[in-house]
Write a structure and sequence with these properties.
Elements: E1 2-3, H1 5-19, H2 27-42, H3 56-62, H4 64-69, H5 74-81, H6 91-105, H7 114-121, H8 125-131, H9 138-147, H10 152-166, H11 171-177, H12 183-197, H13 204-207, H14 212-226, H15 240-244, H16 246-251, H17 256-259, E2 262-263
Antiparallel strand pairs: 1-2
Helix pairs in contact: 1-12, 1-14, 2-14, 3-6, 5-6, 7-8, 8-9, 9-10, 10-11, 10-12
Length: 265
């Protein structure tokens, strides 16, 4: 299954729409969408300054458009994040979330090797490894996270990655496991699944109730700004097969940055 950057972005947006299905005017969602609109229109943060919360996972969600727009270079992404007036105690967790998104979009993290890649490539990898046991139930994993003695915010990050791992990186299983976790944990499970698997693996029950055309248009605007097109130009859905074709990439290899096509089972 070919999953382009476009489809991964669409998977993320559908995941957000599903999570906030009954709370379309939730302040957290509206503030994130304000920043997303800035990137769709101008490709920059502009004068956006949110109301930060006490929860780094929630603040990471507010900064999601920054994670997505600068995902290609994790070091530069870190520099951009340091420009925000984030509480010092939250910076590590937020950077970890940014690294997870960046890794998924660059296929450094994949559904086939999620556990090993998270353990090897993240700062919280050793704690994640210590919580996992062969044949362990989800309840057993939750207890292991609690007894690890990490701060609540880090426990949330471990629950996010654990639900994806224990759910085999699949939508129904991972989301079902996360149901007993805090709302922001469920939100991040859905977002990372969207980044890993794209919209094509999004359950039909979840996707058909949302305005896919409106979301697709927004993603195309964001994708167009990310690819460096002038404001008056937008990538179109019918260009996807052309952009991804090897005959085109042979003569214009820079377009690979736009398509970022990968095979995902």
């Amino acid at each position: 299954m070919i999953v382009s950057l476009y489809h991964r972005l669409l998977g993320i947006q559908l995941a957000i729409a599903w999570h906030f299905d009954q709370e379309s005017t939730a302040p957290l969602k509206l503030e994130m969408e304000t920043l997303l609109a800035q990137f769709c229109q101008r490709g920059e943060v502009g004068n956006w300054e949110p109301t930060w919360t006490a929860d780094p996972l929630a603040n990471g969600f507010l900064l999601l458009p920054v994670f997505l727009f600068f995902h290609e270079d994790p070091d530069y992404l870190g520099d951009r994040l340091s420009a925000f007036a984030l509480p010092a105690t939250q910076q590590d967790i937020i950077f970890d979330l940014a690294q997870l998104i960046s890794g998924c979009l660059r296929e450094k993290f994949t559904s086939d090797h999620w556990v090993d890649q998270v353990i090897q490539s993240t700062r919280f990898g050793p704690g994640f490894r210590d919580c996992l046991r062969q044949g362990q139930t989800w309840h057993g994993y939750q207890k292991a996270v609690q007894t690890l003695g990490e701060p609540e915010e880090m426990q949330g990050l471990l629950l996010i990655c654990g639900a994806i791992a224990k759910g085999y990186c699949r939508w129904p299983e991972a989301l079902a496991l996360a149901q007993s976790s805090p709302a922001v944990v469920r939100l991040w499970v859905a977002i990372l699944l969207g980044a890993l698997r794209g919209d094509r693996h999004f359950p039909l029950l979840l996707s058909r109730d949302h305005n896919r055309r409106e979301i697709s248009t927004q993603v195309l605007e964001f994708w167009s700004r990310w690819s460096g097109l002038p404001l008056k130009n937008q990538l179109q859905l019918d260009q996807l097969p052309l952009i991804a074709s090897q005959s085109v990439l042979q003569y214009r290899p820079q377009l690979q940055l736009i398509s970022q096509c990968h095979s995902v089972k």
